[in-house]
Structure prediction request, 183 residues.
Amino acid sequence: MAATAQGIIAERSGDFDEVERLTRKAVSHEADPAMQMVPRANLIDVLTRAGRFADAVQEGRSAYADAVAVGVERGHGVLILSNLAEALIGLGEGEEGRRMARRAWMLLPSDVAFRSFCRRLERRSLFWDDRPARPRRRRTRRRSICPMTSRSRSAPPASRSSRRSSLCWRGPRPRRTPGCSGS
Prediction:
């Protein structure tokens, strides 16, 4: 716990070498291989934030292999995998980083915030990969489905009541059950 507090202070001061030393110390003190994955995920993040992408990728690959071997791939292994994806993108390996980010959110699809983070990593890899941005797809409505867009532009706008009636449900009204307030 003391190493964590010291690490937070060192990180805020910008001393990433001290943060790395304290994180490696936390990894070495943990006896349970499954519990080593948390400080190892933090170590990958520290190396990435320090700009040492090659070291982060090397540590990330070995940590993820260990996470799979221990059986925590869907737990702490997902954090390692997302940090590895971020390091790969920073190193310039956009395609592999995108694959790792997609794999990470596929392993943990129920966490919306984590899925959003992984999707942002995927998008970031497109910029780091020096690929031209994909053109945005426009939503086009089929004229036969939407009566609002089917009229010509030169025709006068429809009245409010005709617009409302074209968008309303025209089936039978739902039956109310006796004693129900309807709200």
User: Anything to note?
Assistant: The CA atoms of residues 21 and 73 lie 25 Å apart. The chain has a mean pLDDT of 75. The two ends are 53 Å apart (CA to CA).
